[in-house]
Each structure stands twice: as C-alpha cells, then as structure tokens.
Design goal:
Largest sheet: 11 strands, mixed
CATH topology of the largest domain: Rossmann fold
Bound molecules: L-homoserine
CATH class of the largest domain: Alpha Beta
CATH superfamily of the largest domain: NAD(P)-binding Rossmann-like Domain
Oligomer: single chain
Shape: elongated
Helix content: 25-40%
Length: 436
C-alpha cells in the first residue's frame, strides 16, 4: 500500500519531537498503522535555526500554505500554536480535503465548533489528543474508554508549567520568576507565558475536556479563570500545616442546575494522589457514574511526551483511512447533532469550600467579628489558625478553612470582612476541594 505523506507545520519543541518520534519508531508505527508514514514536507519560520530534530529527507519551506496546497500531502500536522493565522491555515487544509492533527488547545477551544463543522462537511478528520495534558491519552479515555458513563465531574492539573512552578516553590523555596524562566528554557511554557500563569492555557484545555465529557459545544468564555500569580510561599506553608497542598486545577462539574467550569488554585488534602502530582506532570481525575473515580497521569508538556499524542493521532487517522474510513469517533464524543444546550453556571453559583487568609489587629473581638460575618452568610468554619504577631507588629495572620458554601455568599462575606477597620489588606481566598 502507498505510504501516507505528512506535512508538519512548525518545527519547535513539539514539531521537533514529532519528527524524532516518527523517524525513530517508523518500523513499529508502520506495523501499527498498517502502512508506512513519512514526513515529506515541513514548514518553519526560520530555516537556518538550530533544531532538536534531524530534517534530512524533509523538504522545508517558510510558507505553510505551500504544504497545505500540495496535493501529495495526506495529513497536515499543525504544531505552530496560537489561534490567529493558524485558524485560516487549518480551515484551508480542511477545504483542500486534508486530514488535520493538531496540538493546538487555543485553536480548538476557541474555534473548534466551526472547525469540526467544516471537517464534517469535507469528510476529513481533525484530531487533537495532544491539545490536552501532553502525553496523557485523556481525550481517548473520555471519548472512547469511558463512553458508557455519565461523567459527573473531572478535575485536573492540566498545565505543566504552573505545576512545575508550584512544586519548585514548595519543595525548594524557589522564586516564581526564576522557575518560570526555567520552564521556558525547557520548552514547557507557552510562547506567551502569561497563558500558563494566568490559567488561560488550563481554561482552553478544560473547555475541550468539558465538551467531550458532557456533550456540550466548546464554550471557552464560560470558564471562570484564575491563575497562580497570587499564590505566596506563606499560603503554601499554611496549607501544608493544615494537611493540604495547593494545586492549580481545572474543574468541570455537572450539577442539577447546570455545568460549572472553573480554573483556579485549589487546596487538596495531601493524601489524595493528585495532590502528589509534581513538576511538569499532569493528572486528570474523572468521575463516571459506572466506573467511579479514575485517574490519568503523565507528562503534561515537553517535546516527546506531546509528540507521543500527536503521533498516536496520526496513526488513528491512517488506520481510519486504511481499514475503517466510515466508522469515526465524533470530535466531541457525542454525535454532532446530539450536543446539549445545558445551562452554564456563572461563578457566583459555584459551591466549594475555602481557605481564607487575612491580616487583622491583635485585639479582643476581631475574630468574633469575622466569624459573625461568616455566620451571617451561613458559612461554617472547619478550622482556624491564629498566629502570634511578629515582634514589634500588632497585626496577626488568621487562617480559616470553611465548609462548602455558595460563592456569592463568600464574595459578600469577604467584602464585609475587608471593610472591618481591624482587618488590613485583602482576604486571600483559595478554593478547596476534597475530590473524594
Ligand atoms: N504550556 C503548556 C503547559 C504546554 O505547560 O502545560 C502543554 O500544553
């Protein structure tokens, strides 16, 4: 049978890793796919740049359109990233009836609904396993392995850079910016690293996971998003004293009132496996009604872990073309005409427990004022730590863990606590999940 010809757009970290894996494992991949897969063309912004891969035998160009318009190419592998110009490239590839494999989470989260509709019209495949959680086959697990379940919720560490920063801060007391610079050097971070540290990258990935889990269209604008930039070493230490770890989580939950989509730092009991996922590793916990809780763990970023998912998608496309052209798994797991328009909850209707840290004057009655405000908003306290003031200072830190409450009650209580004359500065609030 004729070999399948691949055109790779982008030869950065993931593109380089994909070339290496496809070349190194070519014989085994051909046995799995049923035919030979060869990269005949690739595009890169700068052709003379030092690369992690050997491009011998690959015709290079600076113009991705050369490849997209090449009738010899069967599959376009888009590894440029970003959602602007790349959207046009992918839509043109689809219009040219080429199958597309991409690792581009922002593209899928923002434009996936349109892209999938065009792909269905043209009868081509768009595969995106590498867009979420790097090397973990979480899309396949949700879309195929768990397809008999009603997914109740999922919670994941889905940004490797953020987890790497939090881990290094906790374990080695390293400075935030210093660890971020290392994550950039290692090729983990986004071209614009604010996407990592402000939670946008995780929100893109959560959008995709939620669509597949619940059978809803992709709705990035419905994700409540907070990053890790407000987390201090002090919070990390207090959380530890209380038996918790702070992790940056993406959480999607189906409630009786609608779907909750949120990305934020979260206190998790330290005994949970997911609380012990460190460095660039990712993990996604999925709760299905039949299977119960399942956990998927692996490298969330980096050249070859991400390439592992890209190549698996390429093999899936080749298998579908070779032996099973009609029987395709729907893009978002549910049939396109069966997506549900479920209500999406705004953040004030989320229910969660909280860690609160505030600084107050060391005077009688201060704690009583704070707890009265919480009680007025039907918020129960689970634990309190009140520290001694530092020598010569009158202000003391007070740390509280609350039971589950509605977010709008907490917002109102925090506003009143911050207005107390005895409380200085902002209340630092981190949401808390037992993930039981
Ligand atoms: N910047 C992303 C991360 C890359 O750190 O998780 C993988 O999507």
């Amino acid at each position: 049978m004729k070999p399948i010809k691949i055109g790779v757009l982008g030869l950065g970290t993931v593109g380089g890793g994909t070339v290496n894996v496809l070349k190194r494992n070519a014989a085994e991949i051909a046995r799995r796919a049923g035919r030979e897969i060869i990269i005949t063309r690739a595009s890169a912004k700068h052709l003379d740049k030092q690369r992690i891969c050997n491009t011998q035998g690959i015709q290079l160009t600076t113009d991705p359109m050369d490849i997209i318009n090449d009738p010899e190419i069967d599959i376009i592998v888009e590894l440029i990233g970003g959602a602007g110009l790349v959207k046009d490239l992918v839509l043109t590839a689809i219009a040219n009836r080429k199958h597309v494999v991409t690792a581009n989470k922002s593209l899928i989260a923002l434009h996936g609904n349109e892209i999938f509709a065009k792909a269905r019209e043209q009868g081509v495949i768009v595969a995106f396993e590498a867009a979420v959680a790097g090397g973990i086959p979480i899309i396949k697990a949700l879309r195929e392995g768990l397809s008999g379940n009603q997914i109740q919720w999922l919670a994941g560490i889905i940004n490797g850079t953020g987890n790497f920063i939090l881990t290094e801060m906790r374990d080695k007391g390293r400075d935030f910016n210093d660890v971020l610079a290392e994550a950039q050097a290692l090729g983990y971070a986004e071209a614009d690293p604010t996407f990592d540290v402000e939670g946008i990258d995780a929100a893109h990935k959560l959008t995709i996971l939620a669509a597949i889990a619940f059978g809803i269209p992709l709705q990035f604008d419905k994700v409540y998003t907070e990053g890790i930039t407000q987390i201090t070493r002090t919070d990390v230490e207090f959380a530890e004293q209380l038996g918790y770890r702070i992790k940056h989580l993406g959480i999607a939950r189906q409630t009786s009132e609608g779907i909750e989509l949120r990305v934020h730092p979260t206190l998790i009991p330290e005994r949970r496996l997911i609380a012990n996922v460190n460095g660039v590793m990712n993990a996604v916990l999925v709760k299905g009604d039949a299977v119960g809780a399942t956990l998927y763990y692996g490298a969330g970023a980096g050249a070859e872990p991400t390439a592992s998912s890209v190549v698996a998608d390429i093999i899936d496309v080749v298998r579908a073309l070779t032996s099973d052209p009609e029987n395709r798994v729907p893009h978002l797991a549910f049939q396109a005409d069966a997506l549900a328009d479920l209500p999406m909850l705004t953040s004030d209707r989320f229910s969660t427990a909280y860690y609160l840290r505030l600084t107050a004057e060391d005077k009688p009655g201060v704690l009583a004022d704070v707890t009265r405000i919480l009680a007025d908003h039907t918020i129960s306290i689970e634990a309190i730590i009140q520290k001694e003031p530092n020598k010569g200072e009158s202000a003391i830190p007070i740390i509280m863990l609350t039971q589950i409450t509605l977010e709008h009650e907490m917002n109102a209580a925090i506003a009143k606590i911050e207005a107390l004359p005895t409380v200085t500065g902002k209340v630092n609030r981190i949401r808390m999940e037992t993930l039981g």
